[in-house]
Amino acid sequence: MNTTANRLYELLPAIHRIRDAEQGYPLRELLAVIAEQVAAMEENLEQLYDDQFIETCAPWVAPYIGDLIGYRTLHGVVPNVASPRADVANTIRYRRRKGTASMLEQLACDVTGWPARAVEFFQLLGWTQNMNHLRTHAHYAPDLRNQERLRWRDTAFDTIAHTVDVRRISTSAARHNIPNIGLYLWRVRAFPLTRSPAVIDPDIGGGLRFRFNPLGTDMALYNTPETEEEIAHLAEPRNVPMPLLRRWLKAHLGDYYGPGKSLWLELDGNPLQLFARNNIRICDLSDIKDAGGNVIAWAHQPAAGSGLAAIDPVLGRIAFADAPASTPLVSFHYGFTIAIGGGEYERGDSAVPVTPLQTVQGGAALQPALNLVQNGGTVEVLDSHRYVETPSITVNAGKTVVLRAVNGARPLLAASGDIALTLGTEATLILDGWVISGGTLRMAAFPDTQPRYLVLRDCTLVPGTFGAADSPGLVVSHAFAKIELERCITAPLHIVADAEVSLRECIVDATSQKFIAFRGPGADALAEGGALTLESCTVIGKVHTRQLTLASDCIFVAALTKSSDLWKAPLWTERRQQGCVRFSYIPPGSRTPSRYHCQPEDSEQQIWPQFTSLHYGDPGYCQLLQSTSDKIRRGAHDESEMGVLHGLYQPQRETNLRVRLEEYLRFGLEAGLIYGS
Asked: Around Cβ 599, how many Cβ atoms within 10 Å?
């Protein structure tokens, strides 16, 4: 019996309980049935009471409570508005602070999911002072001695007075006017890389100069945004993801340097030792070149014997006064728009792990662990180290091998040649969470007709580092292979014509729209590649495929070389009677199967995608500019943007914010959305 039944049974007179026991407890069994209904009624009454409050109500009640206070539903693309509970709960709080800059800033952050800062541009207008209301902070002419104020000129943190601009801020053409409120939004995120070995500069000897980027190239360092603790607080530079500036970092080094902060250095000893902040100098480490243009040194090299280390956050460089005894470990943040490719972001739980499990860390050799799992198993890397080797991966027939980074790690496999993939019949190889540079993944043609399965998830086959700019990242010559890529960034793909290739939320980058992004293997540049299925992908370079089974919400950035190109089309499909291309941007002159709502709709339309950058490693890599036509920015099947950033639903976030601003702006004011990144 449950608790409710016991309680009811104890209420009966003792004589009835005695007689019930004599007859085998039929009365107790009857009360047990009644108790189930009583318990259901009690639970329902408790829930009815809870449903009066947004914090405790059932999910289906939240929209009804919102309707009582005039809440307007939004596109559920951001966690805060996907379930309206928090948004409804905040509605009254927002209305009590209606029109204030801090409230508008918090509203923008909650609705879009992006860091935001609200700027009242009428506060920055320069006008004649009234003796009854002196504005001592508003100098009509800027103080040229105040470097900090000049540093933020024309940014979200500008405090210099400006002359009036009478154009409308809603068109993003103007800012400084009496009715104008600007909402700055940061779309680029700061992703961490923890305890990665710094890469020594190979061109200048001495063992004193290193780079943060594990690929050995320059890159801007970002700060990790600090959460604002109060709604009345306006965002400051440390609260938004921004590139670190030299002078700013030098003046605020204590806020950004150290464990758990934006960057820090450790010396690889036993145990690890943090490089002291007092010995860090922030300066410009740009190249010094000789008369012939050759790099001979870096500027501002610390003096030998001083024990100092110079850091350049703009270039991502480190210069030591004395050569460290071992490779220093660096922890820092870099900017990118979306969580794809190798990274320490949350990748979610993988499928049921394949046993046995072999773990590797600290840059140790991968090959011994790979040899132990040829009959099936998992090799798991536990850190973000560099693994300098060129392994060969063998999977026996019918088995599955997984080579993955543990969730929260971003290891780099720095190969020096081709990485051979030898798979038996019906074998499966899964690569998860890796950055691979310096070598091409190659699957040879096998002497049978059995399928092989290759899966890449959250991996980066670094474009442009395999020799020639359009050298492939993956070559598959087995005609019965099935290849699947999810959330990957990859160099060109050379896949045999009879294979099947599926890509979802991927970037295929040949480094130029006139190079080849997809074709068949071998020396023939005109060879057709395997059957393609693409969803929410951005392809940079020409494509030649036997069959385009499906292309949905994609952008193809390709063009022919007018003078000597032997290709028939930038996107060239052999079998055009099968397949479909929908809600995608197709270069003019392409040969594709049937199209549905693709752009441009006819050859006379002059629209094309415009990007912040098409260079791998830049923070705005494959991010569409605001100047791109809405037929592309809102041209996907669900009115999001085409391409790899489709899943961010940026147009819907903009729409959500504009809907909310109509409710919370003070009368006579006008708001404009300005992107800080």
From this structure: 20
DSSP letters along 591-651, please? B-SEEES-BSSSTT------BSB-STTSTTBTPBPTTS-HHHHT-STTSS-SSGGGGG-HH
Decide: 345 and 211 in contact? Cβ < 8 Å. no
pLDDT single digits (tens) 459-504: 999 998 655 556 899 999 999 999 999 999 999 999 999 999 999 9
Strand ranges of the sheet holding 329-336, from the earlier edge strand across to the other edge: 189-197, 329-336, 264-267, 273-274
Of the candidates 336, 353, 384, which is a domain's last residue?
336
Contact 465, 414 (CB under 8 A): no
- Answer whether residue 677 shows pLDDT above 60: yes
- Global confidence as pTM: 0.89
Question: Residue 13 is part of which domain span?
Answer: 3-50
| Rounded Cα distance, 600 and 157, in Å | 39
Residue 401, classed as helix, strand or coil, is: strand
| 307, 336, 365 - which closes a domain | 336
Query: Quick check: 286 and 299 in contact, CB under 8 A?
Result: yes
Report the DSSP pairing between strands 452-457 and 428-432: parallel
**Residue 298 forms part of a structural domain:** yes
Residue 402 near residue 430, CB atoms below 8 Å: yes
Domain count, the chain: 2
